[in-house]
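lol so apparently i was supposed to do this last week
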Amino acid sequence: MGKLLIVFALIAVFVAFIGQRIITLRRVCLASREVIQNHLPNCRHLKGLEYGSEDITVLPHGLAIISTGLKYPGMMWFSDSPGKMYTVDLHDPRLKPVELKIAGAFDMHSFNPHGISVYIDDKDHSVYLFVVNHPQDNSQVEVFRFVEEDNSIVHLNTIQHELLYSVNDVVPVGADRFYATNDHYFSNAIMKNLEPLIGRPWTNVAYYSPDEVKVVAEGFFMANGINISPDKRHIYVSDIFDYKIYVMAIQENKNLTLLKSVDTGSLCDNVEVDLDTGDLWLGCLPDCWKMLHYDPEDPPGCEVIQIQNVLSEKPIVKQVYSDNGTIIQGCSVSAFYRHKLLIGTVFQKALVCDMK
Ligand SMILES: *[C@@H]1O[C@H](CO)[C@@H](O)[C@H](O)[C@H]1NC(C)=O
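anyway here it is w/ 2-acetamido-2-deoxy-beta-D-glucopyranose bound
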């Protein structure tokens, strides 16, 4: 009888524990936040992008590179076809996405691109494109050389490492070295899904180079987007579940020192940096519960947040755009070039707005 009581007590404790976790997850996910429409006048969808535009990066002369077709466990996807990469020339009024050809020894059929970023060599101006790829449940970073003349990328290298176990996004600091966020604590697929129920995840930023790989920042709830300041001295990490951007200084030895965090008020995914002003542009979710339980009748919305003067005492955090899912659903990125604003999503369309 005593034993039975103990078993019941343990079950009760376990149920209460899981219940608490679910409540925490719901709270973090802002279950009932209403999205107030904040539209811009001159927006249109980018043609042919229907299966996500998870990450976008813009080269200094206004050519945007977009990753599409992400299949991310726990999220919706509308097509099982392999992921693709596109470019859009922001100076061309047609704003037409053109698929990037992929050359070199590379398995296109399992391509599942996620975070992307470029590195431009100071001396010969070569452009290296770094792409987080999840061909199976795993994570690896693909390095390509971008050949603008024929809109192609040439595969150079696949980087795998035990410290790169659940990579979300990447920012290179050389042709063969980068910082990357791990968005989970566990690398095992089942444990990854259970992770939010077990406790507060403990995720990190790793630094990779051919001669040294190390964890350089940790303790994030869920480290997501990562990027670098135009002067290459600061790293920005979006902790999506903490509604914060962490600002860190790069040390000589490549370790990161936390300087401060900035509240975004939203669940922000990728971080893009305006090379002209240093402003941060974020693609955010007003409601992640709707993201995790996709319902076309009640879809997840979209929020674009801009942070000005991020390094100053008083950064300005501004909502530039928001939509309740009627126009665009589940935003993951926004990038600004001159007066053009690009908005990308995890599994749906992409939008471009002229803010002139
Ligand atoms: C979104 O807002 C519009 C009004 O701008 C409204 O007509 C529509 O029903 C809303 N959609 C959802 C899913 O809430």
